[in-house]
């Protein structure tokens, strides 16, 4: 008998809690019945410009406990520059395609699209050396050229 009265009491508490929750939900919906009212926010508007830059002159917080090696700082071991020839080539970099684990680059020459893998010689003696962001560095007739991706 004792457990039955406790069960009825707990059912009443649960129904009361759910009733309060339902009241809060449905009373908030019925207050704004028109739906056409808009809330206007007034105040200063911060305009974002494209010429803002980040200031990164603060120390790295993740490297606080690591001592910096001053013997090798500032030294560049090897930098290979790409000599761009003044001669123009009639080749356009269209994009890249992933087929399985291979990457194929699409190059267009005279309205004909060719697909090439990096490091392979292809049409007109072109060889793709490497890709840097949206730019391909290609070699043709022992001269290096930069091809930017067409938009």
* Oligomerization state: single chain
N-to-C CA distance: 80 Å
> What's the overall average pLDDT, rounded?
76
What is the number of strand segments?
6
H/I helix tally: 1
Looking at the overall shape, the CATH architecture of the domain at 91-148 is Roll
What spatial order of strands do you see in the largest sheet?
Answer: 1-2-3
Rough shape? Answer: elongated
- Here the CATH topology of the domain at 91-148 equals SH3 type barrels
Query: Which value, in Å, is the CA radius of gyration?
Result: 33 Å
What does this structure look like?
The protein is α+β, with helices and mostly antiparallel strands and 151 residues long. The protein has a domain at 91-148: SH3 type barrels (Roll), CATH 2.30.30. It has 1 helix and 6 strands. The strands form 2 sheets. A 3-stranded antiparallel beta sheet has the order 1-2-3, with no helix packed on it. A 3-stranded antiparallel beta sheet has the order 4-5-6, with no helix packed on it. Strand 1 (91-99) and strand 2 form a beta hairpin. The chain is elongated.
Would you spell out the secondary-structure blueprint of this structure?
Layout: H1 2-31, E1 91-99, E2 102-109, E3 112-117, E4 126-132, E5 135-140, E6 143-148
Antiparallel strand pairs: 1-2, 2-3, 4-5, 5-6
